[in-house]
Amino acid sequence: MSWIAHFWIVLAKELREGLRDRKALVTALFFPVLGPLLVVVMLFLASDSTRQADEKGVEIPVAGRENAPNLVAALEQGARIVPAPADPVEAVRRGDVPVVIVIPPDFGEKLRAGDPAPVRLVVDESRHQSRPAATTAERLLGAWSHQVAAQRLVVRGIHPVVVEPLAVEREDVSTPASRAAMLLATIPFFLVMAMFTGAMPIAIDVTAGERERQSLEPLFAAPVPRSALVLAKVGAAAAFGTVTLAETLVGFGAVPLAVPATRIGFSVQFDPAMLVTSFLLCLPIVLLAAALMVVFAARARSFRAAQTSLSLLMLAPSLPGMALAFLSARPPPGLYAVPFLGQQMIVNELVRGMPLVHSQAMLATGSAMAAAALACAFAARTFERGQPLFDDA
Amino acid sequence: MIRLDSVAKAFGKVRALDGISFEVPDGQITGLLGPNGAGKTTALRIVYGVLRPDSGSATVDGIDLAGDRLSAQRRLGVFPHAQGLYSRLTAREHVLYFGSMHGLSGEPLRSRADQLIRALAMEEIADRRTEGFSQGQRVKVALARALVHDPRNVVLDEPTNGLDVAATRQVRTLLRQLREQGRCILFSSHVMQEVSALCDRVVVIARGRVVAEGTPEDLRRQTGRESLEDAFVAAIGSEEGLA
Fold this sequence. Notes:
The complex is a heterodimer. By secondary structure, chain A is mainly alpha-helical. Chain A has helices at about 5-20, 20-55, 70-75, 90-95, 105-115, 130-155, 175-185, 185-210, 215-220, 225-255, 255-260, 260-265, 270-300, 305-325, 340-350, 360-385; strands spanning about 60-65, 80-85, 100, 120-125. In chain B, the strands form two sheets. Chain B has a six-stranded mixed beta sheet with strand order 6-7-8-3-9-10, with helices on both faces. A four-stranded antiparallel beta sheet of chain B has the order 2-1-4-5.
């Protein structure tokens, strides 16, 4: 009987058992929805906050506005000035208001005397969403301060340009679309998570699970090449990972349907060719992920230990993908050869609408396939030695 | 025919087998008898190819397990020490799975499975998933999958462990049938009664060595004791680990 015949027999049995495993099925069916769903929700939230900011302008509460009517008039040119809450510090800390400008009673007096006039800007730097309001407040205060200084210089017969060696012009090129791109950069992360999550229950079940249920010994007593045995197990795990990966991609493909362009002010587009390319690019790392998980789970002392070690194993390749979301600098080309990372970088570029660079795709695919082959060979060797049945065999 | 030749196996510093040799002829039931921890399971695991000896050799019908494990295993029906089942497969699917691993397929495999299911009186449980099976039912499934390829040699590690009287009798009847068919049967036990009720030959091992060998009568004669139990105690030199 040929090696491949044994491989198919074991693979068919592992798949049949896997399909009857409710936990594995639920994971494979529902996890893929999670990533696309999250992106849809974030897109809606992002579009809402953008619209609020655009329509109403920034709202800045000011306490003690009667102390500086001129300053407040200037602030009103750039923001909507509203009365401040009774306790500004507490209100900002709780996040009720993003920022509060507090003008003390001695403001006018100090200003007239030419002393620095005190203004308190109450802000919580740890709150990301209060940053636009705080920046606006700082900018408006700075502009007014600068204007008063210029007037004072003119009074003393000095041209204000003298104290302006730099003419900084700030140009914000971020658009809603580019902000959304940051969100879309989480897609590679979700793809890697999906393939690991889908393959994990199977990888554990066919190794640590099988040993814990004591069914590994009869299997090892059967006349089957151990390499066929373990590769069939890797194959079953990879099959589940592949399905989960495909589902996740289809889910992301459906995001534009759920988020109409008119609502968010720009269109998200995933054309089917891009999704298929991403799928094919990821296939070698699905195999690599499955082989790694089988190796790790086979070495784990128990089912539980296998779950713990695989959860950690899953983090290692998916975190770099997460970092991509916040990385704007161009990564060095050598990184494309790092399995998982290379694929995530390429998918990230595809998602941003950049074309596929064939040399990079070949590099990433080649190195991932080599790593997968290595992991499979290692798995085969551990099984040939009698592991995971007996650690010392 | 199964044969062990100066087989030694150590786990770390523990010498589980210290050079044991014995032969299991066809058409007979050979009992491997010994106290707990004597090395019975280790010896059987080497015979059915899941453990490799440190030195010495084990052969099945003249085929060395170290040289051609797959051919040797094809000639063996194995009821191993650990007999876990797949909880999401039915009893019949277990038999079919192991049959296909032995190279059977199609109609011959299906009819062989039917035949075994009838022979072991497991028609009622045949198409149920094995989750929640009783110990007796699990043993039947394990026996059926061990015998699916009609092996010439059968190795069983404590097959009656945890069985009630009726199930134990069924297993003994089955072993006698296998002997009538001229097969080579090797089973281990630490239960004296079982060995004396069933075995044509007995191999007594203790501390990894063969300490006595022969028919039950031979043993009694060699040690000069009346009962096999006394003979056994005399052979291993202590009463430790007996039942």
